[in-house]
UniProtKB/TrEMBL annotation:
It comes from the Bacteria. It comes from Paenibacillus montaniterrae. Pfam families: AviRa. This is rRNA methyltransferase AviRa. InterPro entries: AviRa, SAM-dependent_MTases_sf. SUPFAM superfamilies: S-adenosyl-L-methionine-dependent methyltransferases (SSF53335).
Amino acid sequence: MKYIYETNKTSYEDFASGRVLYNAHGTTSFPVRLASEIIQRCFQILEAKGSKGPYSLYDPCCGGAYLLTVIGLLHHDKIKSIFASDINDDALRIAEKNLSLLSINGLNKRKQQIKQYIQLYNKASHISALESAERLSQLISDSNIEQVSAFQSDVTASTHNSSIPDKINIVMTDLPYGDIVTWRSNSPDPLADFFANVFESLDPSHSVLAVIADKGQKLKHEKFKRLELVKIGKRQMVIFEPIVD
């Protein structure tokens, strides 16, 4: 994959899972540089459509919301609201904790927690984590994010969940795959139902869908037009726009 926006390899240690951002068994992290590259490609497509932002962002398979949190920290100037959902209650609890780090209050609470660890254990890793938390606080001091919400939902369900927002500008998700995270759905075709349900939540004229998945999943649907396809190792990333009649 050729990077267009994140052309320089820089250190993202402040965003490491388990450092300041929360981590838990069964949740996954995501390459920070790749996340930033993908969201900036989404921004560019929307800007070309005449939508200048700030934008609403939704991940319907959020897990621990690592992906959303990283994007919110790095691109808070371009985002006004963030929504996260998952079928897994345990993952959602981690998601809520991570998303709280997008506010100064949430980061202050995390810093107090890390300071307690330093008093108890005096480990160099905790001292470094506190330094990272301070830098993240400075990073979001001028954030445009006004709303953050996490809720339980099965994006493959046939019944509509009223908690799901509508007229979303960007849906971005890392689809379940592999041994760590898999689909937890009663749907006979969860991928098709995923596309159909996401379609209903998008702003028809000013939206994009970015999907990351393993190469074995066929990412296409009659309601979406493919705009970009890139391969990243064992993964693929596809950006779609909804087809408006």
